[in-house]
Amino acid sequence: MAVPAPSAPAPAVQPAAVRGCARRPIAGALLAAALAAAPGTVAAAATGTGPAATRAPEGASAVLDGLKTYGQAVLRGTDGSVRQIPAGLYEMRVDGGGMLQTYGVGITGNAQPQARYSESGWSGTTLGGNAEAGRIRWVLEHSYPQLNDLAGLAKAAGAAGLTAESAAAGTQVAIWRLAEGVRVEAVDPQAEKLADYLQRAAGRLPEPPASLAVDPGEVSGPLGTRIGPVTVRTGAHSVSVTPDAAAAAMGVRVVDAEGRPVTVAANGAELFFEVPAGTPDGSAEITLRGSTRVPVGRVFTSGVPAQVQIVAGSSESATVATATGTWPRVPSAQRVDAAGQGTAMKALGALSAPAAPAAGPDAPEERLASSGSSAATPVIASLAVGLVVLGGLVVLLLRKRPLEDTPTPSQGPNQE
To answer: Using CA atoms, how far apart are residues 225 and 360, in angstroms rounded to an integer?
Structure first.
């Protein structure tokens, strides 16, 4: 908003008074916004608030070997296109030992051999918002390879007979129909009968648990307490529990609720981080390792949504999970936050005070600015500059408003 120069006479006093009144709420709003933003900004810098670091995957990780047992299917597009595609079972090699058999969830994704996959829950994949996800798991539990009795499976489906290839093709077609609602049929008539039967008969099953997981994956607390608990979730008989080398060097121990050291844990066990007094601010990571079958219906992702794989069978496979404990010094963070608020208030107070000579090297402000290497220091400095700019605008607006007792046109200076 343009502001008239002081020397230029205003055509009328009343409009100027109105503008002056309008400036007061604007100035107040600017001051309030600056004060409200100051502590939050400083606190975020002091505590390191920001995007969470990517955690290691939980459960099994594997490399895709490729499509091993399959037949053919015909996909009919909404644009009238028709194309033939392979349909069947993939195999994966688990890191650390083990094999998986999987079906593809997305019909358009060409899963690439030697691609790396990590175990995951349904959330974050196309199954996360799919109402048919539970029916897909039912199909997996009631078809090949979970049911190796191909004669019995063919009888249930009303098929004359099934081979491993036609059973795999029929099962994959049923999964594609449920997962994506596409028009796809198996080329083999017996495989097509199996696909129809599975789609028609499918009930609903819940999402399976992870082969190995921790809940939660991250915990925090002050020194002098047991930080946790972290609960172990696994189908393994037991898992090993090992702190990382840095944690061990600091004397951090993994203990149970009674403070007893833990090196092996079972499903449902609660783990705690025990950190010695006087340990600097930091964090520690523990790694859990075990061996178990990956539950049917668990998914594996490669970072490409269209290439998600879902487990249909598993051998005994290596699994791993990690948990992190942190011990921030909360009082220290609060002091930094308070210091940030004080800096903001000093900057605002300086706006209404007369100009002073620049502070010398021994001035308190200079010592404060150079006395530490906190991560909040650059943010506080930037904040102070911003507050000075905002304050200057406030002063300019307030100086331009007329005094409350400025006479109106109806009351001249000589009126009694």
So the answer is: 45
